[in-house]
Design brief:
By secondary structure, this protein is mainly β. Among the domains are: 118 residues; 158 residues, Kelch-type beta propeller (Neuraminidase, 6 Propeller). Strands 5, 6, 7, 8, 9 and 11 form a 6-stranded antiparallel β-sheet that branches. It has a 4-stranded antiparallel β-sheet with strand order 12-43-42-41, with no helix packed on it. The radius of gyration is 23 Å and the shape is globular.
C-alpha cells in the first residue's frame, strides 16, 4: 500500500508531549480512487470516537507539513482527515479508536485515505474463495470458509485496519456450505456450524479467534450435520441455529439449536420447532435489545417450493410466536435472498429466486416490520446482482449492495446503495462506484474505520478492494 506519515503531538496539561504518528494508507495502482496529490487543502482533527465535537483541528494547504499539537491524552481517540479540491470535500479517512497516555509508547494508528464513495484496490491478495464469509470481528474482518476450484478452502485470514495487515490465523476443516456467527461476548469467537465435509454432513463445530486460533469441538450434545441452515448471534452472546436440511435425505428440518459458551461450548436442541421446516432461508435479529426476536424468512420446503410464511423466534422464552397469530406472508416467496436489518429495526429483503420452474430472479425489494408485515418497497435495477451479491450496512444506516449475478446470470461489478426513507417507508436504490473486478459469491465486512472490505468471488486470486463511504455516520 502507498503510505504517508504525519505527526500529531497530543498534549496533556502538565504532561510531556506525546507524538502520535499515524500511517496514512491509500489505494495501490488505482488513480481513480487515490486522493493525493491533487488536494488543495487537508483538514485534520482529533475527536473522541462517536463524538461530533472536535478536540482540536487544523487546516493545511498543499505542500505544508502536517503537524497537530494540542489534543489531550485519553481513551477512544480518533484522527479524522478530510481532503478538499476548492470548496469540495472529495476525500476522507479516519483511524479506528486508539488510546494515548504518557506512560506507554504512543501508537501508530493506520488511516485509510482515498476519494469518498469509491472502491479502492489494495496491495493485498487474499486466498481465492467463493461463498465463505467475511465477519466483522472487533473492528477487523475474519474471512473463512468457502470453496475454490480444488474444493473447500481451509485457510482463515484476518484483515486488521489498525495495522493494515492481512494475516493467516490458521486452518479450519475442509467443508462447504457451513454457517458462521459470533459466539460469546468477552471476547467473541467465530463458530463454524454444519456444511459438507467429504460429501457428508459435518456434525462437529469449530471455534476461531485471533488469540486461540482454531479449535475443533467434536463432543457436542446434538449433531449439527445439516446444510442450508442459519446461525444468528443474539445480544447476550448465544447463537441460534435454525433449520437447514439433511445432506443424506435432502429433507428440510424444523430444528432450532442453541449454542452458548461453555467448556468450550454448550449445544442444546430446543423444544421449539419450525411450523414450516425450511432450508436456504434467512434469520435476522430485530434489534440490539436483550431478547430481541429473530425473523425467519423465505427458504424452500420439502417440495422445493419457497416458503412464503415467516416465523418469529423469541430468545427469552425460547419459543416461536404462535403460528396461528404470527403468519406474515412475503410479497414474493423466495430463497437464496439476503435480509438486512435497517436503522428502525425493519428488515430489508433483497434478491433471491422465486418458485417458478425454472426459478426466476426476484428484483422486488420487500420491507418487513412487526406492525405491518411484508410490503413491496421498490425494485433492484436491471444491472444489479440478484443472487450471490453482498449486502453490507454502512455507518449511516444505508446498505451497500455489491457484485453478484444479474437476471441474465452474468457476474457483475456494479454496486448500489439502498436507503430507507423514514417518512414513507420506501427504499431508494442508487448506483455508486463500480468494483474494479466483477465478483459473485464474494465476501464483504465493515471495518472499525467505517470502510468496507471486499474479497474473493473470482475464479482465481484477486486483490482485495475497500469501499470508502461518505463521512456521514463515521464520527
Amino acid at each position: 500500500m502507498v503510505r504517508w506519515v504525519l505527526a500529531c503531538a497530543l498534549l496533556a496539561a502538565c504532561e510531556e508531549d506525546v507524538v502520535v504518528t499515524p500511517v496514512i494508507e491509500g489505494p495501490v495502482d488505482d488513480a481513480e480512487a487515490a486522493a493525493f496529490p491533487d488536494l488543495d487543502e487537508v483538514i485534520i482533527t482529533v475527536a473522541h470516537d462517536d463524538s461530533e465535537r472536535d478536540l482540536v483541528s487544523a487546516s493545511f494547504s498543499r505542500g505544508e507539513d502536517i503537524t497537530l499539537p494540542g489534543a489531550p491524552l485519553g481513551d477512544d481517540l480518533v484522527i479524522h482527515l478530510a481532503g478538499f479540491v476548492g470548496s469540495s470535500a472529495i476525500a476522507y479517512g479516519r483511524t479506528c479508536a486508539f488510546h494515548v497516555d504518557a506512560k506507554n509508547d504512543p501508537p501508530a494508528p493506520h488511516l485509510f485515505f482515498s476519494r469518498s464513495v469509491k472502491f479502492a484496490s489494495l496491495g493485498i491478495t487474499p486466498v481465492a474463495r467463493t461463498r465463505g464469509r467475511a465477519i466483522s470481528y472487533l473492528g477487523s474482518a475474519i474471512v473463512l470458509g468457502g470453496e475454490s476450484a480444488g474444493g473447500g478452502v481451509t485457510t482463515v485470514e484476518r484483515f486488521d485496519p489498525i495495522t493494515g495487515q492481512l494475516t493467516t490465523l490458521g486452518d479450519v476443516d475442509e467443508r462447504t456450505g457451513a454457517a458462521f456467527a459470533l459466539l460469546g461476548t468477552a471476547p467473541p469467537r467465530v463458530v463454524v456450524v454444519g456444511g459438507l465435509a467429504a460429501g457428508v454432513g459435518a456434525s462437529w463445530l469449530e471455534l476461531v479467534d485471533p488469540s486461540r486460533r482454531v479449535e475443533r469441538v467434536d463432543e457436542v450434545a446434538q449433531p449439527m450435520a445439516r446444510i442450508g441452515l442459519t446461525a444468528t448471534s443474539l445480544t447476550d452472546g448465544r447463537v441460534i441455529v435454525i433449520g437447514g436440511h439433511s445432506p443424506s435425505t435432502g429433507m428440510p428440518v424444523g430444528t432450532i439449536t442453541e449454542l452458548a459458551t461453555g467448556t468450550p461450548i454448550d449445544v442444546r436442541e430446543l423444544r421449539a420447532t419450525l411450523a414450516h421446516p425450511r432450508t436456504g432461508h434467512t434469520a435476522t435479529r430485530l434489534g440490539e435489545d436483550l431478547g430481541a426476536p429473530v425473523l425467519i424468512a423465505g427458504g424452500i420446503d420439502a417440495g422445493g417450493i419457497p416458503v412464503g410464511i415467516a416465523e418469529l423466534f423469541k430468545p427469552l422464552a425460547e419459543e416461536l410466536a404462535d403460528p396461528l397469530v404470527f403468519k406474515p406472508t412475503m410479497v414474493v416467496p423466495r430463497t437464496g435472498h439476503q435480509a438486512v436489518r435497517m436503522p428502525d429495526n425493519s428488515v430489508l429483503i433483497i434478491g433471491g429466486l422465486d418458485g417458478s420452474s425454472p426459478r426466476q430472479p426476484v428484483r422486488t425489494l420487500e420491507l418487513f416490520t412487526l406492525d405491518a408485515g411484508f410490503a413491496a418497497v421498490g425494485e433492484l435495477p436491471e444491472s444489479a446482482g440478484i443472487t450471490d451479491f453482498t449486502a453490507t450496512v454502512l455507518p449511516d444506516g444505508r446498505v451497500l449492495i455489491t457484485g453478484g449475478r444479474t437476471s441474465t446470470n452474468a457476474v457483475t461489478n456494479t454496486a448500489f446503495i439502498a436507503r430507507l426513507d423514514p417518512l414513507d417507508g420506501s427504499v431508494d436504490v442508487v448506483p455508486t462506484d463500480r468494483l474494479a473486478i466483477p465478483r459473485a459469491s464474494h465476501q464483504a465486512a465493515i471495518l472499525c474505520d467505517g470502510t468496507i472490505l471486499v474479497t474473493g468471488g473470482t475464479p482465481g486470486p484477486a486483490v482485495a478492494e475497500r469501499y470508502n463511504p461518505s463521512a456521514v455516520g463515521r464520527r
